[in-house]
Specification:
- The chain has 122 residues and is an alpha+beta fold.
- 15% of the residues lie in helices and 33% in strands.
- It contains two helices and eight strands, in the order H-H-E-E-E-E-E-E-E-E.
- It has a four-stranded antiparallel sheet, with no helix packed on it. Strands 5-6-7-8 form a four-stranded antiparallel sheet, with no helix packed on it.
- A hairpin with a 2-residue loop joins strand 3 and strand 4.
């Protein structure tokens, strides 16, 4: 008797499949590739420190940052700096994943990581 009831229950479960499994539909198409790099326009516009508005004077470009548990480093114009280091009159006071904070004459200035633009960047 038990095997008969178990067989009937199994047959009922097999005969009634959920609608999501019964319908052999294609998944919806994606509008864009979720793994592609974002367009350059999305990145922050302020990426360098320029001393004068006409482009003359010192310019600092933040190329990359490394944030670890014990230490933080920033690549500024090809030089690897740690907090407290000075470059062209600016003192590096803080390093974060996407930006670094410099100080000059008591004024803090935030500089964002300069993006690496590839030829196939959309």
């Amino acid at each position: 008797m038990r095997t008969t009831i178990a067989a009937v229950v199994f047959w009922m479960l097999a005969a009634t499949s959920p609608p999501s499994l019964a319908a052999k539909e294609e998944p919806p198409a994606l509008a864009n590739n979720p793994f592609s790099r974002p367009p350059s326009e999305v990145l922050r516009e302020e990426r360098t420190i320029t001393e004068n508005n006409d482009g003359s004077g010192p310019t600092l470009a933040l190329q990359a940052t490394m944030v670890g548990r014990a230490s933080r480093l920033a690549n500024v114009d090809g030089r690897v700096l740690k907090p407290g280091d000075e470059i062209q009159g600016y003192v590096l006071i803080a390093i974060h994943e996407a930006y670094a904070v410099f100080e000059r004459d008591g004024n803090p200035v935030t500089v964002y990581v300069k993006p690496h633009l590839a030829e196939n960047d959309e």
